[in-house]
Amino acid sequence: MLFRYTTDAKGRAHKAAVIYTKEEHCIQKEKIDPDALRIISQFKDYGFTAYLVGGAVRDLLVGNRPKDFDIVTDATPSRIKKLFRNSRIIGKRFRLVHIFFGTKIFEVSTFRSIADGTVGNDFGTIDEDVRRRDFTLNALYYDPLKEQIIDYVGGVRDIRKGVIKPVIPMKTIFVEDPVRMIRAIKYAASTGFKMPHSLTAKICSSAHLLSPISPSRLTEELLKIVNSGHAHKIITLALETDIFMHLQPGATSLMYAKEEFAKNYMAHIQELDDYVAANPDSRLGNKLSYIIYDFVESLTDWSKEIEESAAGELYTKTWNQVRHFVLPMNPQRTELEYAIRLVLKKLGVTIKIPRDAFSGKKNRNGNRGPKGQTKKS
Questions:
Q1: Rounded distance, CA 375 to CA 350, Å?
Q2: pTM over 0.90
Q3: Which residues does the annotation mark as catalytic?
């Protein structure tokens, strides 16, 4: 076993990290995307340091083939942009670089400083960067050229034990970024790892911190859950830790008020996971239909509405109520509209929406917004 050393404020050397060699970690190099290897090799050729980091290392360590390969380096975003013509800088404050190989996107970040805590935007060193990583299972750095894992925080040990432990002190981890609570339960659901009681209790007592988080950030996290294939387990944990009421307050209130709704809602979430497993690249609207089905079904007596409602009015009312139901999630409007039509069709109603329905322009009836035709399917 090898060790990585650093010096303290007085210049004394001490062990900072454990280095696991190929014989110790047993990562299969053929499971790494060749283009990720090319990126890291090019960084090295130009004198920079670069590693695979986060979930990719975790997946490789347990023998899985990662879906994404995130990379971290000591090169700044502007320098990365010059090294890779097939790249683009994203973000305004926390700048990252996306490197493109056909349809594949590799996200590259620069080592971050802890000068302003764990959410600052200054660049730093690997020794600082690791202290900004949320949980030990995501705080491993892998050099695929040397085939070595650099472990500052006992992440290899925790992965092998199947436990989720925070890197950042418990008193500040969720105060500085409440979204880390969502990530914690996502990791637990997707890996099957256990959260210590102290971590679970801290999430329960900190759930209210999610209230001021922007809808855009919550939407990003919710859509990851919808697409994860582990939504049932994630939502179960979110309910147990009191954070689901901040992610989907409409669904949570109905689940607490009506046992039958809760049962049916969770059954459809399980169906969503089964659907995602079989159709991972399906459009978002298909997946959202599982989220909204029980709410739409509960709105009215649909067999009666088909006979009594005016054309277009039924859809408009449903749209407005569903839009409110999914808040603070704000998915692409065309995808939510598609999901609503799909659910209505299952309930015996077919809605045809003209192309200009959401263009903001007046349609032939002189009205803005959705207008259409309602009929029995």
A1: 6
A2: no
A3: 68, 70, 134
